[in-house]
Amino acid sequence: MPSDEERGVTRVVVGAGDLTFADVEAVARAGAAVELAADAVERMARSRVHVEAAARGGRPVYGVNTGFGALANTRIPAGARALLQQSLLRSHAAGMGPPVAREVVRGMLLLRAAALARGYSGVRPLVVQRLLDLLNAGITPYVPFHGSLGASGDLVPLAHACLCLTGEGWVLGEDGGPAPAADALTRAGLEPLRLEAKEGLSLLNGTEGMLAMLVLACLDAERLFRTADAVCAMSVEALLGTDRPFQPELHELRPHPGQARSAANLARLLAGSPIVASHRQSEHAVQDAYSLRCHPQVVGAARDVLDFAATVARRELAAAVDNPVVLPDGRLESTGNFHGQALAFACDFLAIAAAQVGAIAERRVDRLLDATRSQGLPAFLAPQPGVNSGLMMAQYTAVALVADSRRLAVPASVDSLPTSGLQEDLNSMGWSAACKLRETLTNLARLLAVEAVCAAHGLDLRAPMQPAPGTGAMRDLLRTRIPGPGPDRFLAPDLAVAAELIQSGALLRAAEAAVGPLL
Fold it and tell me: Helix (H) and strand (E) counts for the chain?
């Protein structure tokens, strides 16, 4: 995963090597400038020669002089082959629903440009340059949410995105709704692109929609899993837990790398804690509940799943995904490399892991609020329980989020339906898997926000004992925006503030400023 320094990318060169996660985040989220490498222009020009030769020849070549999908055996006369490519974008831009997030669409455009720039698709360099022009002009196509099956590439989303290049279709308007693409191109001084042989097909036959979502999800999950360690440390202190299960010699006995990293984070965050030291010899400190003691084993396992998902994403970032592909010797060969099964599995697995990280956080929330298990804290962390309900209902919200994440953890990748007259008879459903992964991570951030609010209240109620430097820094940051224990108040704004501090990384940065970077 990129460091904070690596994430400060302001300019990305496409076609000069494999893109990094930091590159994708910089363009998708921060609006970094993009440019096309000179080497990529030369590679694409060489492969374009072979496509033009195939277009002039008599041998049937899929998508060059034939129809698509179940129409692959339909020959297209020479005079209609340019229209074939434009017609493909029009017919495949058939999505429905609300717009896909701007960051996903920008990531998708960047990644499709990078795949084409490898020189195995046979498109003109101008096509890739126009994709980059859209990004640099800040034009975001309006891509409806529903339509991709993640098999023959993200056909419908890419069709909506790339139809804009030709001056047709929609862009994302200032009000968040669809606006005419032609008007946006005119304002940006961009001429509509006239597609030639194979170019419409090459724009669509990619996995870049689900890949963009997976890359961004990996970045978010990495930050949230570290945040989960930090917030857990707050709860351990608030519940008078012990730090003994987090010592490195115990985790060397079971050498899972993610587990060791989470345990090391907890040990670092709890080091020097006056609260932990105050009850080290207490009877209840012999063995804490699973939600405290086994946090490294649960979140560590999720970290290992994240490592797997990131590996899959990096492989796809290095891929030339298209069908057919143009080999260096001039052959145009059909492939199945557009099939998104690898990405679908990775997204589903990471969603399962993220759901479980949220589930263990909710169990700590429940323990913090239950006076029979919270080691002396008042019921629901209310100074006057009964008159006040305290944070009782925050746990209801946490339970609802856990239930939703468990629904989202049901794999999409085993739920294929056939399409295109049974030519495409097993689809990956990778787009669906990636979309629900993003929802699960949003739920996780909110669950950690609930835990952070509850744990901070618990730490306040342990006064005059003080927390460790890292946990105290998080509590103090929360207190700049959220009041501590007291009479009942409108709770939703407090939870929203905590969620924003977690999603922005501010809460994690507060802890790391006190104890150093977490693993």
Answer: 20, 8
Residue 4 has pLDDT above 80, yes or no: no
Residue 400 CA: distances (Å) to CA of 129, 404, 445: 46, 6, 14
The Cα-based distances of 234 to 55, 424, 428, 497 in angstroms read 65, 51, 41, 18
**For residues 117 and 488, what is the distance between their CA atoms, to the nearest angstrom?**
58
DSSP string over 46-72: HHHHHHHHHHHSSS--TTTTB-SGGGT
Residues with catalytic roles:
62
Neighbours of 57 (CB within 10 A): 11
Identify the residue whose tokens are 């496409």. Answer: 14
3-state DSSP call for residue 385?
A: strand
CA distance readout (Å), 247 to 137, 269, 294, 457: 52, 12, 13, 27
pLDDT of 187 reads 97
Neighbouring C-alpha atoms within 13 Å toward the C-beta of 270? 30
Give, as one character, the DSSP assignment of residue 117.
T
pTM exceeds 0.85: yes
Decide: helix, strand or coil at residue 414. Answer: coil
Closest CA to 309 of 157, 439, 433: 433
Segment 189-213, tens digit of pLDDT: 999 999 999 999 999 999 999 999 9
CA–CA separation, 445 and 248 (whole Å): 28
Q: What is the mean pLDDT of residues 164-174?
A: 97
- Number of Cβ within 10 Å of residue 469's Cβ equals 16
Strand partners, 14: 36
